[in-house]
Amino acid sequence: MPNLKQHNSRRETMSYLVAALYHFARFTDYQAFRAPLQAVAEENGIRGTLLLAHEGINGTIAGSPEGIANVLSFLRARPELAGLEHKESWATKMPFNRLKVRLKKEIVTMGVTDIDPLKSVGTYVEAKDWNALISDPDTIVIDTRNDYETAIGTFRGAVDPHTKTFREFPRWVAENAGLRNKPKIAMYCTGGIRCEKATAFMKEQGFDEVYHLKGGILKYLEEVPETESLWDGACFVFDERVSVTHGLKEGEHALCHACRHPLTPEDKLSADYDEGVSCPHCAEAYSDADRARFRERQHQIALAKGRGERHLGA
């Protein structure tokens, strides 16, 4: 439950509380839960995305501390979700355009059947113990995120699979027999959900000593002092903040609304950068017709901004 006294003290500079959450569970009637969950979130002025599936819940939402507390209480009132944990950070502006509560086959899509983190999963490692594990020469450290995420930050010495989507991760494991050269596998992701499912997959593949960072990068950046940190760069987040750094402070990155790649301040100085239209990562990837469509969308965003409105296509 959020500490409202602490939250009120921070409201002078930070306006919105952001809660990242997930929980694997046997959620047999998840479809029927969608409408009441959406209603409670709407009543409390919450925006963001929540995914429901037979295997549990996953999402990130933002709003007032009181609104977030009410939604979390509503979720934890369900027996299947009583153990749900969440991670908090702050945003100076509302980081989501709308509320979406969606039904899915998986709350994080790997595309492999019969992978069940409730049956077999790796060993959780607390943020305070992570440095010791990944510094062990007997450990292979794997970043389970996608290439556009790893591009702006990662743990020192980590292996980057360069995947475009999480669906590619099982094939990458199959193609890298060298992963069995060391006894320990340590895995991490943004908030914990992908690496939890990835450790379940690795256990199914016969890896014995498999570990994952509890609470993900977000918990590490929140709890581990920067002076002791083995993290370099920023952590990509799936909202309009784009990235966060140590202490979960908002990063300097922007988002290319053409290709969705995070952009550094230097990227925005490139001749290939045209706001909303192209960036150094996608300048050659789209047709003239695509760029014309992007340019019109950006024009509509600018018009909406001038009227003091939010353009949903942003």
TrEMBL record:
Q: Which GO terms describe its molecular function?
A: oxidoreductase activity, acting on paired donors, with incorporation or reduction of molecular oxygen
Q: What does this protein do?
A: Catalyzes oxygen-dependent 5-hydroxyuridine (ho5U) modification at position 34 in tRNAs.
What keyword terms does UniProt attach to this protein?
Answer: Oxidoreductase, tRNA processing
First-tier enzyme category under EC: oxidoreductase
Q: What CDD domains does UniProt report for this protein, alphabetically?
A: RHOD_YceA
Reactions it catalyzes: uridine(34) in tRNA + AH2 + O2 = 5-hydroxyuridine(34) in tRNA + A + H2O
Q: Which domain of life is it from?
A: Bacteria
Instruction: Return the NCBIfam families for the record.
Output: PRK00142.1-4
**Protein name according to UniProt:** tRNA uridine(34) hydroxylase
Q: Which residues form a coiled coil?
A: none
> Pfam families from the entry?
Rhodanese (PF00581), UPF0176_N (PF17773)
Q: Which one GO biological process term can you cite for this protein? A: tRNA modification
Its ancestry begins with:
Bacteria, Pseudomonadati, Pseudomonadota, Alphaproteobacteria, Hyphomicrobiales
